[in-house]
Design a protein that fits this description.
The complex is a heterodimer of chains A (597) and B (617).
Chain A lengths: L41 H7 L8 H6 L8 H6 L5 E5 L4 H6 L6 E6 L6 E2 L1 H13 L5 E3 L5 E6 L1 H13 L16 E2 L6 H17 L6 H6 L27 E4 L13 E7 L5 E8 L18 E6 L4 H15 L10 H7 L2 H12 L19 E4 L5 E5 L5 E2 L1 E2 L2 E2 H11 L3 E4 L5 E6 L4 H10 L9 H4 L1 E3 L17 H14 L9 E4 L13 E7 L2 E6 L10 E7 L1 H18 L6 H7 L15
Chain B lengths: L3 H8 L17 H11 L4 H19 L17 E6 L4 H15 L4 E5 L13 E7 L11 H8 L10 E7 L9 H12 L3 E2 L4 E3 L4 H15 L30 E10 L9 E7 L12 E4 L5 H11 L6 E4 L2 E4 H7 L8 H11 L2 H6 L5 H10 L2 H7 L7 H7 L6 E4 L10 E7 L2 E4 L2 E4 L1 H9 L5 E7 L14 E4 L6 H12 L6 E7 L2 H4 L3 H10 L4 E6 L9 H7 L1 H9 L3 E6 L1 H19 L4 H13 L3 E5 L1
Helix pairs in contact in B: 1-4, 4-7, 8-13, 19-21, 20-21, 21-22
The chains are: A alpha+beta (597), B alpha/beta (617).
Chain lengths: 597, 617
């Protein structure tokens, strides 16, 4: 790709500074020299001055003249689980009309492992309709997002989420985010155990500041009480976001290698949880035209027993806290900390902090990173239904009353709901005698259980326009249309039932984990996408840039012959991502550093 | 050439000349001549003494202390007193015309605004002319309320020996057309006054009727003993601006520089911001003044009417000696939408429509009012068809298309060469037809960049920034009522005023109806605006208006008033201004810990001392 291209699509939020766009070389291959810009980034200064994430959020919320927060509070509010956004469709029009952008807030719910009760679902559903834009968004991190909440209703919304015993704290920000884990309901005992660990990690890494309760839940300040203390994070928290996932082979639905810290469940001969193979240093985000930024898959560094898991987690986080780059937010993820030094350095540092090295990693085998749809039977006679939710958007549309249908199901369902890492939904633990009721509600609301093409049910997109301040192109609103067109080519080639993972994001930051997809479209500018090919079907290999800045016509013109060739020439069981490498359309990416090579 | 409006303006202007950009034009030629005559023979000591004396008078007035009683004992019995009650400036203008005509006839005359006129002086008056407008539901203008109340109260004594006449200004599209003028007329008579000349009720197009009344009334009053000879004013060159002033009859064609929607996507309202070039005109205005727009009727409205009457738009008609097409006359010269009682009366006679005649009877007056409210001329014409009406006959039914006044939304100092207006497009549905406000949709729909808009300036001396730029101001302007405050804030920023400013704004929804939001944010940031409070009525379950927001800030608001703040209200008269007024009294009572009657007096004192001014409609 052309390195001279200016970041034209970089239409960042109107407030707040843009980060430096200068390409640079972060460390050479010896990992010894790191040319860091001097000093801390602005966000570091804001965190430091925030008195444990308070800032002036209360005053900002009370300011009636603007729907926005003060710039520094807009940074801090992320730690509380919310992003300030604006409707970019209306931005220009409103500017001309002498109105500020239509600011609103995205609120993200923290739900470890994505498990919620029907009661919680009903409350969130109602909040979406009364306080947000009338839809619920299931995210790629197994959490819920509300969009379009206006400032005066933000506090009520967050308080209401807390009333359901869920929270929003640390759903965003430079802290550990929602802990993901495979929601696999049909191996209930194992899942239960893994889910329990996910919850414990989540709880262990939750910020300790009382600011959240003071601001949103009206907890009175205790005069002369204990000062805030963040024993793990410290007053400036982490240099950047931190993501943890737990995978249960053979499913890599959580994309464990895309996380800063990953645990791969290892089962012993009795099918009981023996422990976890540990991976570190994964991460998706990068910036167009800045080769010093790149996606990276986590490295396998060892094995830990369940009882070591919290200690391992804390020490990995602590290393990143101490060594992560606080001068440049584009170089602040753990993946760069590791690449700037080395995996061996990291393992040694971790061993020193744990007073013992990790055991050698144990083998595992992943088969896929997608979901399996339809009804399945689990242990104890319970049944589970996995529904494809296109791009995670739960809303009513003329052809399908998805939101209403799920609400009606929640009213009769006495199991639970599980959000998958692919933005889908499992109606889990259904008593066999309730299945008919649920099926009738699905049919009545025209919610399809199957019948969609394999490519569609293996696709996902981030939110992007109009709400996301980072988006350079459409994603959620556009991918279904592009899939329609790809489906035609796939159907003609006899590939309707062959799964190919397709992911789209509106910018290169990677929310839909595009760089492990077999085909990825990453927004470059309005209507133009970089096309990446060759990711591993099990989320175990990065893809490679195939063509830059393609329009829809160009995308179809480029992909059609490759798809046809795949249909004609593939070997038995050969995945599309493997084929495009074998056929020479792209070369295999073996490490993050060679992603741009 | 004289500037009649500024002469009238100067007559009663309470504030020192610092307010005006051209102090010289504060005094009329005649006043200047008189001043020169007085000053010429004085010794330096006497000049100094007079300087101090006048400064004292002025400052006493500004701080609200009653002025020294004028030396009225010596008042010439033959002198005519013109008292006017004006809201938008029309009555003040007519009063200035009376004075000019009277002086031309060699009659002694003094002109007073009602709020400066001491009611107790009434007993000494021999010749009184009243020019007064009527507001909304038949009330007097703000400046006339006190005199109106006085006359209708017990304190008004017998007015033996008084000869008077009243000119009533109004708008026949309102139910209580010219009511205030009728009130004064009837009351002066009841108190023993002699009506020297019959009252004339003027509609919006008042020029000709007013001229007629001035002639008649002055002639009637002049029949008294000849007035004391008066020095003819020495001819002297006009000071200040010599370019001819634009007026209703001679509007300036301003080029539209911009026509921008202000209401956000999804708003139920459509408010627009127009920027007009006044480059090359002599238009001059202060914050608080209004711009008169001469609109045109839409071609669809004209077309529908002509079709209904089966008249040819191309036929020519005579317009004061000029021949134009009927279509042109209806588009530009006549009001062809609003129904008024006189119009229905004339039409009923022509159409011989019994149903209409019934409506016009006294016992059906509320039905008539209902009928007039929801309908327009086109409804009358289609419901009571009138075949064979001639063009001239049609025009004889109609009144002239009146200009519409809009508060000027920009400061001339901050935006020289530009005049901004804020216009809410009026559109609604009634009796199966879509209707639209003549002027608002003329501006909203038919003025694009580069188009010409005929305008003139209407001075509003009752809505002015404090003379002292250090005086704090509180502004209450919901909806398009915020327009003049944009001018206020711009002006104060332009002149580097040190006084604090506080704006209350309200509308329906924060996200779509926050007019000029980004400008206010900038003004707050720059310190041009000290404080802003907002009330968006439909964002909550319970309606919440500016008066509620005022009440929520009662303590600070009262403190500002105690610090000498001036209080301004602009916008809807019917409800908002009334509610804000009541809220103000309540706040004063509560915060000042005084009974409501005293709080009322406090607020009345604010009005009397011109610290509480309103521009409501």
């Amino acid at each position: 790709m052309s390195a001279a291209e200016p970041p034209q699509g970089a239409n960042s939020a109107p407030r707040g500074g843009s980060e430096a766009a200068q390409p640079r070389a972060w460390g050479d291959h010896t990992g010894e020299t790191v040319q860091a810009p001097p000093g801390r980034s602005e966000v570091e200064r804001v965190k430091d001055a925030s008195d444990y994430l308070r800032g002036t959020i209360v005053q900002s919320l009370a300011n009636p003249i603007t729907g926005a927060l003060a710039d520094s509070d807009a940074q801090l509010i992320k730690f509380h689980g919310s992003y300030q956004q604006d409707d970019r469709d209306l931005r220009d029009e409103r500017r001309r009309r002498k109105l500020e952008p239509l600011y609103s807030f995205m609120v993200r719910v923290r739900a470890p492992g994505g498990v919620v009760t029907p009661w919680q679902w009903l409350v969130l559903d109602e909040l979406a309709r009364t306080h947000a834009n009338g839809s619920l968004r299931l995210t790629t991190r197994q959490s819920f997002q509300f969009h379009g909440i206006l400032k005066p209703r933000l506090k009520e919304t967050i308080a209401a989420v807390n009333e359901t015993l869920l929270t929003t704290i640390a759903a965003c920000g430079d802290v550990n985010r929602n802990v993901m884990c495979n929601p696999n309901p049909y191996q209930s005992a194992l899942h239960g155990e893994v889910f329990d660990w996910a919850s414990r990690i989540s709880e262990e890494l939750k910020p300790r500041t009382r600011a959240y309760h003071e601001i949103w839940l009206d907890d009175a300040l205790v005069a002369g009480g204990e000062p805030d203390d963040e024993p793990l994070y410290g007053r400036t928290y982490l240099p950047r976001k931190f993501k943890i996932a737990i995978a249960v082979p053979p499913s890599n639905d959580v994309d464990v290698f895309a996380h800063d810290l990953g645990f791969i469940a290892i089962v012993d001969d009795d099918a009981r949880l023996a422990g976890f193979t540990v991976t570190v240093g994964g991460g998706m985000g990068m910036t167009h035209s800045e080769p010093a930024t790149y996606p990276r898959l986590g490295d396998v560094i060892g094995f830990c027993r369940p009882e070591q898991m919290l200690a391992v987690t804390q020490q990995v986080v602590a290393i990143q806290r101490d060594y992560g780059d606080r001068s440049d937010r584009k170089h602040a993820r753990l993946k760069y900390t590791i690449d700037d030094r080395s995996v061996d350095w990291f393992s040694a540092e971790l061993a020193a902090r744990l007073h013992a090295p990790l055991e050698p990693p144990r083998p595992f085998r992943f088969e896929h990173n997608g979901d399996r749809y339809g009804w399945t039977e689990g242990v104890g006679g319970k049944q589970h239904l996995t529904l494809f939710i296109e791009n995670g958007r739960v809303q009513d549309a003329p052809q399908m009353s998805l939101m209403t249908g799920l609400r009606e199901i929640a009213k009769v369902h006495d199991g639970d709901f599980r959000l998958t890492a692919n933005q889908n939904l499992i109606v889990a633990n259904v008593d066999p005698d309730k299945r008919l009721a649920i099926e009738s509600l699905l049919a009545g609301h025209r919610i399809e259980v199957d019948g969609r093409s394999a490519v569609r049910v293996n696709s996902m997109a981030c939110v992007a326009l109009p709400s996301c301040g980072l988006a350079m192109a459409e994603s959620e609103r556009y991918l279904p249309t592009l899939i329609d067109k790809l489906e035609r080519v796939l159907d003609e080639s006899g590939l309707r039932h062959d799964a190919i993972t397709v992911r789209m994001t509106g910018c290169p930051n990677g929310c839909a984990r595009p760089y492990v997809a077999e085909i990825a479209f990453v927004g470059k500018s309005l209507g133009k996408y970089n096309v990446y090919l060759g990711g591993g079907f099990a989320g175990d290999r990065l893809n490679r840039l195939y063509r830059s800045a393609l329009s829809e016509d160009e995308i179809l013109a480029e992909l059609t012959p490759i798809i046809r060739r795949y249909a004609a020439e593939r070997r038995s069981g050969e995945r599309f991502g493997d084929f495009v490498i074998r056929a020479g359309h792209v070369s295999e990416v073996t490490s993050g550093r060679t992603f741009h090579a | 050439m004289r500037r009649p409006d500024s002469a009238a303006f100067a007559q009663a202007l309470p504030d020192p000349p610092a307010l005006l950009s051209q102090p010289a034009s504060l005094l009329s030629d005649e006043q200047l001549a008189a001043l020169d005559r007085l000053i010429e023979p004085l010794a330096p000591d006497q000049l100094i003494w007079i300087g101090g004396y006048l400064a004292g008078l002025a400052s006493a007035h500004r701080t609200g202390t009653p002025r020294l009683a004028p030396a009225h004992a010596e008042r010439d019995e033959a002198s005519i007193t013109v008292v006017y009650g004006s809201q938008s400036g029309n009555s003040a203008r007519v009063a200035a015309d009376v004075k000019a005509h009277a002086e031309a006839k060699g009659l002694a005359v003094r002109v007073k605004s009602m709020d400066e006129y001491r009611p107790s002086d009434l007993r000494a008056e021999k010749k009184l002319l009243i020019v007064v407008s009527t507001q909304g539901e038949g009330e007097p203008p703000d400046t006339g309320k006190e005199l109106h109340e006085f006359l209708h109260g017990r304190k008004a004594g017998k007015l033996e020996g008084l000869r008077y006449s009243v000119l009533a200004l109004g708008d026949s599209s309102y139910e209580h057309f010219c009511k205030t003028g009728r009130d004064f007329d009837a009351r002066l008579e009841a108190l023993g006054g002699e009506r020297a000349h019959p009252r004339i009720d003027c509609d919006v197009d008042y020029d000709d009727a007013a001229a007629q009344w001035i002639e008649g009334a002055l002639a009637a009053l002049a029949t008294a003993p000849a007035p004391a000879p008066l020095h003819a004013p020495a001819a002297r060159p006009v000071r200040g601006n010599v370019t001819p002033l634009h007026s209703k009859k001679n509007p300036f064609l301003a080029t539209a520089l911009a026509n921008i929607g202000l209401s956000g996507h999804g708003s139920a309202k459509e408010v627009r911001h127009l920027e007009l070039s006044v480059e090359g005109s002599a238009l001059s205005y202060e914050p608080g003044d209004s711009v008169g727009v001469l609109p045109a009727n839409g071609s669809d409205v004209v077309g529908d009417l002509l079709d209904a009457l089966e008249l040819d738009p191309a036929q020519s008609v005579d317009l004061g000696g000029e021949s134009v097409t009927l279509g042109f006359a209806l588009a530009h010269k006549y009001e062809i939408t609003t129904l008024t009682r006189p119009l229905v009366e004339k039409y009923a006679a022509l159409a011989d429509a019994q149903a209409l005649r019934d409506l016009l009877t006294a016992e059906n007056s509320s039905d008539l009012w209902q009928y007039l409210r929801g309908r327009q001329l086109i409804d009358l014409v289609t419901e009571h068809p009138l075949r064979g009406i001639g063009a001239a006959q049609l025009l004889s039914l109609l009144r002239k298309l009146p200009p519409r006044l809009y508060s000027i939304a920009s400061s001339q100092k901050a935006n020289p060469g530009e005049l901004h207006v804020t216009v809410a497009a009026v559109r609604y549905e009634s009796h199966g037809r879509s209707r639209h406000g003549v002027a608002s949709t003329f501006l909203a729909d038919r003025i694009a960049e580069g188009d010409a808009v005929p305008i003139y300036v209407e001075t509003n001396r009752n809505f002015k920034l404090p003379a002292d730029p250090a005086t704090p101001i509180i502004m209450v302007g919901p909806g398009t009522g915020v327009a003049p405050f944009r001018a206020f804030v711009q002006e104060r920023e332009a002149i580097g005023a040190s006084g604090r400013s506080w704006l209350f704004f309200g509308d329906r929804h924060f996200t779509t109806d926050f007019l000029y939001q980004r400008e206010w944010q900038q003004a707050l940031k720059d310190g041009a605006l000290t404080r802003m409070d907002v009330a968006f009525s439909r964002d909550r379950e319970h309606k919440f208006y500016v008066q509620h927001r005022m009440q929520a800030q009662a303590r600070d608001l009262y403190a500002w008033l105690q610090d000498g703040a001036h209080f301004y209200v602009c916008g809807d008269a019917e409800r908002m201004a009334r509610d804000v007024h009541q809220a103000l009294i309540d706040i004063v009572a509560e915060q000042g810990e005084m009974p409501v009657e005293r709080a009322s007096e406090y607020v009345q004192d604010l009005q009397r001392s011109r610290r509480y001014q309103r521009d409501v409609y």
